[in-house]
Design brief:
With about 400 residues, the protein is of the alpha+beta class. The chain is about 55% helix and about 20% strand. It has 2 domains: about 200 residues, no CATH class; about 190 residues, no CATH class. It contains 12 helices and 12 strands. Strands 3-4-9-6-8-7 form a 6-stranded mixed beta barrel.
């Protein structure tokens, strides 16, 4: 322990220089841990709100920007799938259910002077129960048209079954409230209004094309077979539609957010490398200032490994103090950053409620940041320690 006490003494003698090195380590650890926690929180949000509808195949019009990632805003066009191609999809997917989807938007009056624009989804009455579940109320019938309101929209405006809405000036009764579905890759009804396709076409005009066609596969093992059948029937000569299942799209999103997390960690790592350069500089100066002291220690019997150990202890102590303080600070700052990031991503929507950032993954980033901080400090101090250990004792004692 005598060499450890020497290291502590030397750091105390130059406490200002040591403090600056510790601050650098703190900043690096906080950067890595906080940004890692933020990336982990975004991943948790995606896992929390995305519904992996494993029995669903989604067919969309082919666009010029395919092969990027799901949700790429460049793919947002007015393209649609004509009815004749929907019929081809139905034949290719038989005996599985094919569900063409109409989508639009209009101003909705919710009563008491409250209004706003909402997405309107049109579905055949027989397809609605196969695709969506109810929280309360009943499904609209063919001879009794009614609307189904998304659960978050219903909560926001206090809408219950039996209420009446005005969509684009046209009144319609609310038949039921849809169960929460999360962010799915076929349709997202939580903040939308679902109406029968006949009402939709009377309101918006008869449509001969659909922006999305959904196939519900009764046996998950047949998904790939259904996709191949649709591809071979519609995309024989040229790319007409894009065919994907929710598992494939979910993998794309997870890969995107994994890359985001790696990028954030790399940014934090840069700040820790800068701190390591500072420690290297401090340790090198310390060796230069203590050449005579090193020569005296070597002359009274200290071995090279003992000198090496003293300087490595100094670097390790700097790293440990910076890592511990940085770990505590990053726990608080990571939480605050994550709360702000989640609020921005969810824009205050209900599906972000109750999402915690302190899961094992978040704690893991704090531990990783601390360990990386200590390891970087020791690595930065290795060359000055090696140089000190290999000084010639006689030449060191002659130094001024």
């Amino acid at each position: 322990m005598i060499f450890f006490s020497f290291a502590v003494r030397n750091l105390k003698r130059h406490w200002i220089r040591s403090s600056l090195s510790i601050i650098g380590i703190i900043i690096g650890v906080v950067a890595i841990a906080s940004l890692g926690i933020m990336g982990n929180s975004i991943n948790l949000l995606v896992a929390n709100v995305i519904t992996d509808v494993g029995d669903t195949v989604v067919i969309t019009p082919h666009t010029a920007f395919v092969g990027t990632f799901a949700g790429d805003p460049r793919t947002a066009t007015d393209a649609a799938i004509p009815s004749r191609e929907v019929a081809e999809i139905r034949r290719a997917a038989n005996p599985h259910r094919t569900i063409p989807v109409l989508q639009g938007a209009d101003e909705v009056e919710f009563g008491r002077g409250r209004s706003g624009y909402a997405r309107i989804i049109g579905l055949a009455p027989g397809d609605i129960p196969a695709l969506l579940n109810l929280a309360e109320g009943q499904y609209p019938r063919q001879n009794q048209p009614g609307a189904l309101i998304g659960i978050h929209l219903a909560r926001e405006y206090g809408i219950a079954p039996g209420a009446r809405l005005r969509i684009g000036g046209e009144s319609i009764r609310v038949a039921g409230v849809l169960a929460e579905r999360g962010l799915a890759f076929d349709i997202n009804p939580d903040y939308a209004i679902v109406v029968p396709d006949s009402w939709y076409e009377n309101h918006f005009g008869v449509s001969d094309a659909y922006p999305v066609v959904i196939v519900r596969v009764s046996d998950i093992d047949e998904i790939d077979t259904v996709k191949e059948a649709i591809e071979s029937r519609l995309n024989r000569r040229k790319e007409v539609v894009d065919v994907a299942d929710s598992r494939e799209i979910l993998r794309q999103y997870k890969e995107v957010y994994r890359q985001i997390t790696v990028f954030l960690l790399a940014i934090g790592g840069i700040s820790l490398v800068i701190a390591a350069v500072n420690i290297l500089n401090v340790m090198y100066i310390s060796v230069t200032e203590r050449i005579r002291e090193i020569g005296v220690m070597r002359s009274i019997g200290a071995q090279r490994r003992d000198i090496l150990r003293i300087f490595l202890y100094e670097a390790m102590i700097l790293g440990l103090i910076g890592a511990i303080i940085g770990g505590v600070v990053s726990a608080a700052s990571g939480y605050l950053i994550s709360v702000v990031a989640l609020d921005l991503v969810t824009a205050g929507m209900a599906f972000g409620e109750g999402l915690t950032v302190f899961d094992p993954g978040a704690v893991g980033y704090i531990i990783f940041g601390m360990a990386f901080g200590v390891a970087t400090s020791i690595a930065a101090g290795f060359y000055p320690a090696w140089r000190a250990a290999h000084l010639n004792p006689i030449d060191a004692m002659r130094a001024r």
